Amino acid sequence: MADGGQTVDQWDLVERAARRLARAFGTGYGWRPDVREATRSGGATTLPPQSSALAISRRGQVTEQAARSIGGTKHQRRQQQWRKFSGVVAVPSYRMDEDTLAALSFAKLDGPLEAILLLYATGDVNRYWPVVRQFGVAVARDIRADEVVTDAIQRLLCGRAAVAMDKRAKELGVRASSYRAATRRAEQKFRAWLFEAAYRFLHATSTPGSAPE
Questions:
Q1: H or E element: which one contains 137?
Q2: Strand bridging mode 32-41 / 87-93
Q3: Residue-number span of the structural domain to which 123 is assigned
């Protein structure tokens, strides 16, 4: 079992959903390489029509050594040729994944579910955390709910909170055991939301017409 009572298989679903959404929103490591071949023709590098490939050049031989300093500096620059050559390059290319975005809509992730899944997938704290925080505070029902849910989401997303729980409890003037219990309950709730959101999203992607994983 993973932390928060979720199984490894459940967290595999969360990771699959997050990778697909990150790719759809043009973030993370899911970029699709656009591979093109540059060919040499008549001494110059030519690229296929409408190519987004990179023309690669290397510094060539020295053509002229500066004869005198400019502006009194002792550092003299020299002029060099840049030689282009043929080769294969790959550049990141973001393509809108309309099937994934449609599946996100069909999944009908109400409440905090869509926000927490997109927060986990994209890391866009400014956009999605306010929604997750609002629901988290409502569920926590603790006098220190704001600190509790903030530390809980940091533990979930980053592996650890910015401030240790015992230190945070001391700063807030509450019992460490009570604060740890409240933070862990909030983290468990966030994990449950993530699993539910990922399950419903992936179920929506399996409907006819959706793109393959």
A1: helix 125-140
A2: antiparallel
A3: 3-30+96-205
